[in-house]
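Subject: design request, 485 residues
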């Protein structure tokens, strides 16, 4: 087994009740560097016994954590933010090694991820309730927001730091304790963040981390334990549906951040340079492996060819290679399955008559690399327009009218995010209103912001993360009817 250059100090045990432990049955999983296919580390795999230990630890720690002064919880989150920034290069390197993204993308992710600790350090001391006189005048209505309790957090591999902090930070701010199940491919970043939280003063049992396979039933086991009160999931829509079924058995409060199939509309009156620059960010942040990735480009006919040509040139100029190498902008995909899926989507679109704008020769050597590609005239039946691509491939189609653009954009069961570029702000706002999505990038290719509510409509999710809304997902309203006159 060749061990690649993992920074020293990255935990390779699971965290339960403040202790770093191995699996009781000794099970481990190997974490692979997708740029080289070499083994980075062996990490213990949690089973049912560890899951129940973590639920007990989180349950026992919860009342004391909720009772802590909001200011104390806030200061621990603030210290976590500062520690993350101090160690940002180390965290970025771990992200590159286990996820494959470029160092620039990983640095961006660390800054974004840390910001959730800062934002929720600020929100922890700003939680409000309601007090109002009842309409009848006979009594007072009071509404308290109380911590929901033990939260099970399940995260994907594409943003191994940010998807964890986007859940942990609001949960801790609200007074919840958590059990994080990171993605099988990327447990190391989550373990390193947990170590930072412990060093920042998070008490034993408040944060627990259980690396495990998605195929194990530990999440199901935890969701059927009545001490667990919350599920927050980020991942694909099919797995989200499965977990909603599981959560139904015990009626566990569930937040779902699921898949997307984002349209990117370019109107003929748009600033084309800005639209191409925005398309590159919307498509290529994280190498295309983002739920917010623009999946379908609809461009008004008069500028469609010009847009495609400029976009293809920008895609073709990206430097691809191992994420830590100098100047690399595009790393490998996460694993072989992802690589094969993206190539199959391109093949299917070409079989249905799509036109491939220039594309480099396939990558020679190890690693799960996929060359960037832009395809024009993609047939509406192509899978490329229906599925999340999750890779550096873009499909461009032209449209004639505003109504047609809106109806093409909305013709999907997903509704996470839509982008549009236009020089006419009134048109931009009108179209934004008509698009079925939880988030809109209006003349912007990037929307993610810890201070804003992130989330989708339709089959892209339930609930919101970030902003003032994010912390409410970890609280319950308690209404007290009283009268004092
Ligand atoms: P995934 O659904 O395969 O896995 C997500 C998590 O669920 C992982 O931790 C995995 O181990 C776990 N899991 C898988 N099957 C499970 C099961 N049966 N029971 C319990 N846990 C299970 O998703 P992924 O491939 O890791 O991530 C990519 C997906 O995530 C894409 O669809 C992307 O759009 C979505 N995503 C959404 C957002 C958002 O905020 N909406 C953000 C990032 C990623």
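Subject: RE: design request

Done. Sequence follows.
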């Amino acid at each position: 087994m060749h061990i690649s250059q993992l920074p020293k100090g990255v935990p390779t045990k699971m965290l339960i009740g403040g202790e770093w432990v191995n699996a009781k049955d000794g099970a481990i999983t190997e974490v692979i560097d997708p740029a080289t296919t070499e083994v980075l580390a062996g990490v213990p795999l949690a089973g049912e016994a560890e899951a129940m230990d973590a639920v007990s630890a989180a349950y026992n720690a919860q009342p004391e954590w909720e009772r802590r002064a909001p200011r104390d919880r806030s200061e621990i989150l603030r210290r976590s933010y500062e520690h993350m920034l101090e160690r940002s290069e180390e965290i970025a390197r771990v992200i590159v090694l286990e996820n494959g993204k470029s160092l620039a993308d990983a640095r961006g992710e660390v800054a974004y991820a840390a910001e959730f600790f800062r934002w929720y350090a600020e929100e922890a001391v700003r939680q409000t309730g309601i007090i109002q006189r009842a309409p009848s005048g006979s009594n007072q209505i009071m509404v308290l927001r109380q911590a929901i309790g033990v939260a099970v957090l399940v995260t994907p591999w594409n943003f191994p730091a940010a998807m964890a902090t986007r859940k942990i930070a609001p949960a801790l701010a609200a007074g919840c304790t958590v059990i994080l199940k990171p993605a099988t491919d990327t447990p190391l970043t989550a373990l390193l963040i947990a170590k930072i939280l412990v060093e920042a003063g998070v008490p034993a049992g408040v944060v627990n981390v259980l690396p495990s396979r998605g195929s194990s039933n530990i999440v199901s086991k935890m969701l059927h334990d009545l001490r667990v009160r919350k599920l927050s999931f980020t991942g694909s829509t099919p797995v989200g549906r499965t977990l909603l079924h599981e959560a139904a058995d015990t009626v566990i409060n569930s937040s779902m951040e699921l898949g997307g199939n984002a349209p990117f509309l370019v109107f003929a009156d748009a600033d084309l340079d800005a639209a191409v620059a925005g398309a590159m960010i919307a498509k290529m942040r994280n190498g295309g492996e983002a739920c917010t990735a623009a999946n379908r480009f609809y461009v008004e006919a008069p500028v469609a060819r010009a847009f495609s040509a400029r976009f293809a040139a920008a895609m073709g100029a990206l430097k691809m290679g191992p994420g830590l190498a100098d100047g690399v902008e595009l790393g490998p995909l996460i694993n072989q399955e992802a690589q094969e899926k993206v190539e199959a989507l391109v093949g299917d679109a070409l079989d249905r008559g799509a036109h491939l704008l220039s594309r480099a020769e396939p990558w020679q050597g190890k690693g799960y690399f996929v060359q960037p590609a832009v395809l024009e005239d993609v047939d509406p039946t192509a899978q490329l327009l229906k599925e999340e691509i999750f890779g550096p491939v873009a499909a461009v189609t032209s449209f004639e009218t505003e109504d047609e653009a809106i109806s093409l954009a909305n013709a999907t069961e997903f509704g996470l995010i839509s982008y549009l570029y236009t020089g006419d702000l009134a048109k931009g706002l009108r179209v934004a209103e008509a698009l079925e999505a939880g988030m809109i990038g209006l003349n912007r290719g990037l929307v993610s912001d810890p201070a804003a509510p992130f989330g989708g409509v339709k089959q892209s999710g339930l609930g919101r993360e970030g902003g003032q809304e994010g912390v409410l997902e970890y609280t319950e309203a308690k209404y007290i009817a009283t009268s004092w006159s």
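The chain has a mean pLDDT of 97.
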